[in-house]
Amino acid sequence: xxxxxxxxxxxxxxxxxxxxxxxxxxxxxxxxxxxxxxxxxxxxxxxxxxxxxxxxxxxxxxxxxxxxxxx
Length: 71
Hints:
Blueprint: H1 2-17, H2 22-36, H3 45-51, H4 55-68
């Protein structure tokens, strides 16, 4: 559990540094999608959450980073 929190903190730090760069933020999100197998389709997220005990924490960080982007 400590390992996942350390990893997520690193993603948050990278996002804070990249805060004004949408391209870098998108790259961080893509990295998270691949590393944690975040489903591309939101309809698959409930099943993913059931299968990954850290899913809720991962999604919180992912959504926070997504919120930093200027779509």
